[in-house]
Write a structure and sequence with these properties.
By secondary structure, the chain is an alpha/beta fold. The chain is built from 25 helices and 30 strands. The chain has a seven-stranded parallel β-sheet, with helices on both faces. The longest helix has 22 residues, at 483-504. It is globular, with a radius of gyration of 28 Å.
């Protein structure tokens, strides 16, 4: 209709506009549109970006209840909008933001919006009681009427209104009053979520929150929880996140919550089975106390209970008092109390015994024969292009002469393009147009978890005969979760990539992690400091406890064994502690999940640290430096069949970090361990638990006896005149300012 009738002005709810955008194809021509109005629901900044990418029309956020003749304020939305307001009142309209006592609220203070003016109706037809409640005398003009909107807003200093949601969307859970609309607003601000809604539901006598959302991305639940944890108290974070292809809509184009699938039907519980022994009783009681549930069956799936990292910390604290210690990973490995207890009662297995350190000679670098050999790759295949490191590697590849193929998980080419376009806009703003990107990039829809990368035999054959270099960045990089998750992507996915390279004789450049060194050895092994170099692989390090590290180390083993057999040409790049770009401090969108940034947040927010942790050592490796170093080695040296450590050689300890922070006027107190533990035990766990959980509070730093080194890699980099930036006060200031700008600190 828009195309046929050359429509100029379009108005609709975000849900309706989203449906329109998802149905657009090349045959549609919307050049006639000059203005688009959006109203009726909240929406995210990424939604604005999507519209502005597809339409050149002016975009307006329009607000107004039916009772005030629909539109009563408006805000033109510009490109690079920092936040969303509903604007200022239109002509002949007056707004009051009032508290519960009908007193005016100053800027920044939430209140209810009351609307006055020529557009306000006389009331509801044949409903005098409802009219009396909603249409009141204007408190500043007795001859006028003001409408009680039920919407929660606040004034900005610029005289515009921030909209928070309805006051009738409030629910009460465990004594806390919660605005569902506030959760929806924050969730919709996630850069990769298109639309979202939140409901309160009752399960086993317990009120829980469930969020539904649509996205072109696959987002892990833990990432969403971490994203919300920075902006909302813990009791407002949903227990479940359910992705849907589309949210159901009413006839008016608004989200129809009544038609959402029931979380209970998705997470169906078994009948109550009582504990069979003392260990089961203790764990069930701890869970019941922490989750406010009367009876928890030993067969109850943990997913049903809405257990999160905060719950785990509280349960562990309860059980520690009883002398029962449960590793955090057990809550992810085992789905219920019965299975968890069975695992605890078993003698721990020794785990993998196949790893050995007989690779030293094969991995040895001959620096005497180090020669630059400029390489040109006609076609490069990149995995993980939407990740933090992957997108920065992709940006560098855009400035080479190589044709770039990106393997992307998506339902179709359009969604894949949206993912890449959105990620580029997030990290690089308007530096690259879509026309430029997709002239240089060819998208391949696939998935490394599947044999043949999820491609047809024909497409696999075509790709294999075209590509002459592959950079493998795709990985799950979180440090907590079920081993099967990590194995499917980090180990099995890497095997699939390697098999593809071996079949078509393609050079593989595999991105691993310096964390495979594990930082410490089992105490029974040695107390001496062990160097972990580019020629090291398995040195007896304790890799079993961390599933991320285990999956990455076993993936390296698979590659090395095939390199030794002459079947695979590959380089392995172990990456250090990735931090924000050196150029501007810009960091990944899910900053909440990063251990270093959480530690920095904790230090700067609480201004304390503990004495025994002062010697913890780490590197700060800006992502733009790391990406440049990787590409520098790939494009300047012949295939090495070796390992490289890509990390800034300038090492920090918490002590030196705090000394630099003090030069920036941050005063940090160093507490005795016992005093520190007492201090954090009194903190608000709702806001600090995710951060505190990242601290290894009981680690004696004398056990951190593995020292990672990168001297060999530096020889390669020096030879091509590449040098890491110095980590100085200027860079630390960039990091901190970025964190402040996004309100992380």
């Amino acid at each position: 209709m828009i195309t046929n009738y050359k429509v100029n002005i379009l108005y609709g709810t975000p849900s309706k506009i989203q449906s329109l955008m998802s149905s657009i194809n090349k045959s549609h021509n919307f050049s006639s549109l000059t203005d688009i109005g959006i109203g009726g629901e909240s929406f995210s900044l990424s939604f604005i970006t999507d519209i502005q990418r597809l339409f050149s029309a002016n975009l307006y956020n329009m607000y107004g209840p039916t009772e005030t003749t629909i539109g009563c304020c408006c805000k033109k939305l510009e490109r690079n909008q920092k936040f969303i307001t509903i604007g200022k009142p239109l002509a002949n309209v007056r707004f009051y933001v009032l508290d519960q006592n009908l007193k005016l609220c100053p800027p920044g203070i939430k209140g209810e919006l009351y609307i006055c003016g020529d557009g306000v109706s006389k009331g509801y037809y044949n409903q005098p009681e409802l009219t009396e409640k909603s249409f009141l005398l204007d408190i500043f003009n007795s001859k006028s009427v003001m409408y009680k909107s039920g919407d929660i807003v606040s004034w900005t200093n610029q005289g515009e209104l921030l909209f928070y949601g309805r006051n009738d969307s409030q629910v009460k859970i465990r004594g806390y009053r919660i605005e569902l609309s506030e959760i929806e607003t924050v969730l919709s601000s996630h850069p990769f979520i298109r639309t979202s809604t939140v409901i309160n539901y009752n399960y086993n006598g317990r009120d829980l929150l469930c969020a539904y959302y649509t996205s072109d991305f696959t987002i892990q639940n833990y990432e969403l929880k971490l994203f919300l944890a920075d902006k909302l108290p813990n009791y407002m974070i949903p227990s479940h996140f359910i992705p849907l292809f589309e949210l159901p809509l009413t006839i008016n184009g608004k989200i129809d919550k009544a038609k959402l699938p029931s979380p209970v039907s998705i997470y169906k519980s078994a009948q109550y089975v009582k504990p069979e022994n003392d260990l089961q009783k203790s764990i069930c009681r701890a869970l019941e106390k922490c989750l406010y549930i009367k009876k928890i069956s030993i067969d109850e799936d943990f997913n049903n209970l809405g257990i999160d990292s905060l719950t785990i910390i509280k349960v562990q604290a309860q059980l520690d008092n009883l002398g029962i210690s449960i590793p955090t990973r057990y809550f992810y490995d085992y789905s219920n109390v019965k299975d968890l207890c069975f695992a605890l009662e078993q003698i721990p297995a020794d785990g993998d015994t196949t790893l050995s350190n007989d690779n030293n000679l094969f991995l040895k670098h001959d620096l005497n024969k180090l020669k630059i050999k400029k390489r040109h790759f006609k076609n490069v295949l990149l995995t993980g292009c939407t990740g933090f490191l992957g997108v920065h590697i992709l940006e560098i590849l855009l400035n080479t002469n190589s044709k770039i193929f990106c393997l992307v998980r998506a339902s179709n080419i359009k969604n894949a393009r949206n993912r890449i376009s959105n990620i580029f806009k997030f990290y690089f703003k308007d530096k690259y147009t879509d026309d430029f990107l997709f002239n240089r990039i060819e998208i391949v829809i696939g998935d490394i978890k599947y044999k043949n990368l999820g491609l047809s035999d024909e497409l696999l054959e075509k790709l294999g005969n075209t590509v002459d270099s592959l950079i493998h960045c795709a990985a799950i990089v979180k440090h907590i979760g079920k081993y099967d998750e990590f194995k499917k992507v980090n180990l099995d996915g890497t095997k699939n990539i390697a098999n593809f390279c071996m079949k078509y004789d393609i050079c593989l450049n595999h991105v691993s992690t310096i964390s495979v060194s594990c930082d410490f050895m089992p105490l029974s092994y040695t107390s001496d400091m062990i160097g972990f170099t580019e020629e090291s692989f398995f040195i007896g390090q304790n890799y079993q406890e961390n599933y991320y590290i285990k999956s990455k180390l076993l993936a390296e083993d698979y590659l090395i064994q095939n390199m030794k057999k002459g079947l695979l040409k590959a380089n392995i790049f172990r990456i250090g502690n990735l931090t924000g770009r050196y150029s501007d401090g810009f960091f990944q969108y899910n900053i909440d999940s990063n251990a270093f940034y959480n530690k920095l947040h904790f230090i700067l927010t609480n201004k304390i640290f503990y004495e025994s942790g002062m010697l913890q050592e780490f590197d700060l490796s800006p992502v733009d430096d790391v990406a440049s170093a990787i590409i520098g080695i790939i494009y300047n040296y012949s295939n090495q069949n070796k390992i490289f450590h890509i990390m800034n050689p300038q090492k920090f300890t918490i002590k030196t970090l705090i000394e630099k922070l003090e030069l920036l006027n941050y005063q940090i107190r160093i507490l005795k361990d016992a005093d520190f533990y007492k201090r954090i035990s009194k903190m608000n766990l709702d806001s600090n638990s995710l951060i505190i959980n990242n601290f290894n509070l009981y680690t004696n730093t004398s056990n951190l006896n593995v020292k990672t080194q990168c001297n060999i890699t530096l020889k390669y980099l020096d030879n091509i005149d590449f040098h890491y930036h110095k980590i100085d006060l200027k860079y630390l200031t960039k990091i901190i300012e970025y964190c402040k700008n996004i309100k992380f600190i």
